Amino acid sequence: MYQLTNLRHIYGTRVVLDLPTLEVREGEILAIVGPSGAGKSTLLRLLNFLEVPTSGIIRYRGQVVNAATPLAVRRQVTTVFQRPALMRASVRANVAYGLGLRGLPADGRLDEMLREVGLADLARQSSHTLSGGEMQRVALARALVIQPHVLLLDEPTANLDPYNVALIEELVRAYNARHGTTVVVVTHNIFQARRLAHRVGLLLNGSLVELADADRFFHAPSDPRAAAFVRGEMVY
Ligand SMILES: Nc1ncnc2c1ncn2[C@@H]1O[C@H](COP(=O)(O)OP(=O)(O)O)[C@@H](O)[C@H]1O
Ligand SMILES: [Mg+2]
Fold first, then answer.
1. Inter-residue contact 122 to 130 (CB < 8 Å)
2. What is this structure's pTM?
3. What stretch of H or E contains 32?
4. CB contact set of 74 (below 8 Å; sequence gap of 6+)
């Protein structure tokens, strides 16, 4: 889905990402774990075409990403953030928003999505009266209803209760399995990475020190820092 080559991203004088090569495979769930400040959110912004790298190349489906990348391509990718920015409007209006933006009708697909995320009964409720878990489910529904090709999740369940964490993980897993949507999830939660991901990468100071199939990452990591992380000795 993506091929990053010799990518470096610099803020001021600081190299925040240095990725000689990184592939995101079509249809996979890739988890990126790592401490605060490692560059995880920056990586997601680059994958969502919100920034261009200081140097290096991002290919999306084989095409080099640049200023000429069409809006129709950019809109295939969407991000759900830790704290969803919802409009002060009903749940339904929030979920319908992305459809309207793309000129798609708010048809049966919208109601089906609200049912899937367990919000059908709250469809008319104003989004600012929801609990944190409900808000995050609105944000996820809003992202999924447009049937993105790539779903980027930036710590989507940080600060949520276990019930909502499980709900959101199950929704992501089911959606990925059903639609083959490529998912990149940034998470602090090693257990979440283990539950969700096909492959896991550990990002430290802008470098991927380990990137492996989930089984290998958790049972036989090759980098000592990844091993320490898996053993719980690297705490953050
Ligand atoms: N817009 C920006 N301008 C300057 N520095 C930034 C900007 N965004 C992020 N940074 C810095 O880049 C580094 C990586 O940030 P970020 O990608 O948000 O890390 P993470 O998501 O892993 O916590 C941090 O040191 C952060 O302060
Ligand atoms: Mg972040």
1. yes
2. 0.95
3. strand 29-33
4. 49
DSSP collapsed to 3 states, 96-145: HHHHHHCCCCCCHHHHHHHHHCCCHHHCCCEHHHCCHHHHHHHHHHHHHC
> Averaged over 209-221, what is the pLDDT?
97
The rounded Å distance from CA 37 to ligand 2 centre is: 7
Cα distance between residue 212 and residue 220, in whole Å: 9
92: left (phi > 0), else alpha (psi -120 to 50), else beta? alpha
3-state SS class at 83: coil
CA separation, residue 31 to residues 8, 13, 14, 155, 200 (Å):
20, 28, 24, 10, 5
Nearest residue by C-alpha to atom 3 in ligand 1: 11
Using pLDDT thresholds of 50, 70 and 90, give the confidence band for residue 235.
low
Domain coordinates of the chain in residue numbers? 86-147
Closest ligand 1 atom to 17 CA:
14
Q: Are 26 and 1 in contact (CB under 8 A)?
A: yes
- Helix or strand holding residue 195 (H, E): helix 190-196
CA atoms within 13 A on the CB side of 33: 28
154 CA: nearest ligand 1 atom? 21
Q: What is the overall mean pLDDT for the chain?
A: 94
